[in-house]
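Work Package 3 (structural annotation) set out to generate three-dimensional models for the target panel prioritized at the project kickoff. During this period the team completed the workflow that converts sequence records into discrete structure tokens, so that structures can be stored uniformly alongside our sequence database. As a representative example, we reproduce one entry of 146 residues exactly as it appears in the project archive.
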Amino acid sequence: MTVESNEYIGMIHSYEIEAGNFTKAGEAASSIKRLLRQLGVDANVIRRVSIAAYEAEMNMVIHSIGGNIQIEISPKAIVFKAVDEGPGIEDVNLAMEEGFSTAKEWARELGFGAGMGLPNIKRCSDEFHIQSEVGQGTYLEAKFIL
């Protein structure tokens, strides 16, 4: 099965993310990984998209009041979007620095909040854009060239 000949091409696959729900955390990233495998996407691309999806999903679970992840697949690229409601990011440039985190102590005790989420998403993607407004939420888009 090739990406070009599949009915999933051009469709937007959407996943709702529930804030604070660590029981379901990672389910969207796992579903995306399964879908990409089913489509026969290159294993390296699957790995990169999966890492980005997991990092974005965990950021929403930990920091937001909920959100949505969307993935659109074309014969040339995978576009990943994460949109959340929540506090927004006060200083995006600072948040992009490895090791910077605003995670609360409870999240750190669970093993999260190392400050690598956004830098990992950027590192894994071919194109990366993030926009955030305090009090409104965050919009993140990552593109992966096939």
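The radius of gyration is 15 Å.
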